[in-house]
Specification:
By secondary structure, the protein is an alpha+beta fold. The chain has eleven helices and twelve strands. About 30% of the residues lie in helices and about 20% in strands. The strands form two sheets. The protein has an eight-stranded mixed β-sheet. A four-stranded antiparallel β-sheet has the order 5-4-12-11, with no helix packed on it. Bound molecules: iron/sulfur cluster (2 copies).
């Protein structure tokens, strides 16, 4: 990996040049203290010292609704795949979201090749930024996601008057060369960057899981019949918000929409969530997780056991979005894991 220095006074020009070359989305303040990834119309809208965004940047790679194919019916039936994508830069992605995207890459591109996802991902440049401010619900230290060494094209670390930019890919290197005025980082700047990065996990020290990363699956196995899941279910609205804001939830539903004269239609997919009542319902009407406590347990097992057993890393990156999105305040993985550890 190479490292370059980009002075802050030259940063707006870099973003402006990027905007001339491709669509650029970045972190913007939506209302006071609430941030979102949204298209940038000017570099001044970009906010890089945010705590967390309401939704993760996943929405640009795996959209909430996406047409997969269009079909025609009649004597001859035909269908055409729809692959919608365009060159896109996502600017200001925090390390936990970089890890979330890397996990989606593994699931959609490496495990089951999904050409819709793959095409969009190939067209996307990830420009990350190291965390400067921790969200109150985030627990990145526990999930090994406070900093990252891969998964980005470029990663900015704030040095005061400049950024040290870690160049993670050839694509990132090309962009920096063509669109920015940067120079090689000095030894002193590299040492300062290492110091800054070492401190980042400690921003999350007040919000930690009392079980090690590797021991979470065993904790869940041991506590699979805990009454806690029923207690939480009494308050759960089955709204699915905890799934929808999550950077690593990837479930979707596929539906067909046929026009009124039955001559043509489209097949599309929509985000789905395991907390929604109909998620595990099958064609006969049977629902394999009819009870809310079963759905809550399933979500927690996905976050702390099943994905780890398959990919060697947890399906939770500790962003805390589920905790802040849950109205009855029962979705926080830190509280659930810690209460399970206490034997509750
Ligand atoms: S489970 Fe919650 S904290 Fe973990 S990645 Fe998903 S939204 Fe973030
Ligand atoms: S956000 Fe809270 S209330 Fe809504 S489904 Fe998730 S746990 Fe239940």
């Amino acid at each position: 990996m190479t490292f370059r220095t980009l002075e802050k006074k030259n940063f707006p020009l870099f973003i402006e040049n990027l905007m001339g070359a491709m669509e650029v989305v970045g972190v913007r303040e939506r209302i006071e203290g609430k941030y979102e990834f949204a298209p940038l119309e000017s570099p001044s809208q970009l906010c890089l010292d945010y705590d967390v965004t309401i939704f993760s940047p996943k929405k640009y790679i795996l959209p909430p609704r996406e047409t997969l194919l269009k079909f025609k019916m009649g004597k001859v039936v035909s269908c055409e795949p729809v692959l919608e994508s365009r060159p896109l830069a996502i600017v200001g992605v925090h390390p936990y979201d970089i890890k979330g995207i890397a996990q989606l890459d593994r699931i959609f591109a490496e495990a089951n090749d999904d050409e819709h996802y793959r095409k969009r991902r190939q067209d996307t440049v990830i420009i990350g930024v190291d965390i400067k401010r921790a969200s109150p619900y985030a627990f990145c230290k526990s999930m090994n996601s406070a900093t990252v060494q891969e998964g980005f094209d470029l990663l900015l670390t704030d040095m005061g008057e400049s950024y040290v930019v870690a160049v993670g890919t050839k694509k990132g290197e090309g962009l920096l060369e063509q669109q920015a005025l940067s120079k090689p980082a000095t030894k002193e700047e590299m040492a300062k960057r290492a110091e800054v990065q070492e401190k980042i996990p400690y921003m999350f020290s007040l919000n930690t899981i009392n079980t090690s990363y590797e021991d979470l699956p065993k904790l869940l196995t041991d506590r699979a019949n805990s009454k806690l899941f029923e207690e939480l279910a009494e308050k759960c609205f089955s709204c699915g918000s905890c799934n929808l804001v999550c950077p690593t939830c990837y479930c979707f539903d596929v539906q067909d929409d046929v026009n009124l004269n039955l001559s043509a239609g489209e097949r599309f997919r929509l985000w789905d969530g395991c907390l929604l009542e109909g998620f595990a319902k099958v064609a006969t009407g049977e629902n394999f997780r009819e009870d809310r406590s079963q759905r809550i347990r399933h979500r927690i097992f996905r976050k702390g056991k099943y994905i780890y057993e398959k990919y060697g890393e947890h399906g939770c990156v500790g962003c805390g979005r589920c905790a802040s999105a849950c109205l009855p305040d029962i979705a926080n993985p830190v509280e659930i894991f810690n209460r399970l550890k206490e034997g509750k």
